Amino acid sequence: MPTGDGIRVDPDDLIRHAARIDRSADDLDTARQAGQHVRLDTDAYGQLCAIMPLLLDGLQRTLVDGIGTAAGSVRDTAGRLRASAASYRASDVHADHLLRRVRDDR
Question: Among 8, 45, 95, 104, which is 20 to 30 Å from 89 by CA?
Answer without folding.
Answer: 104
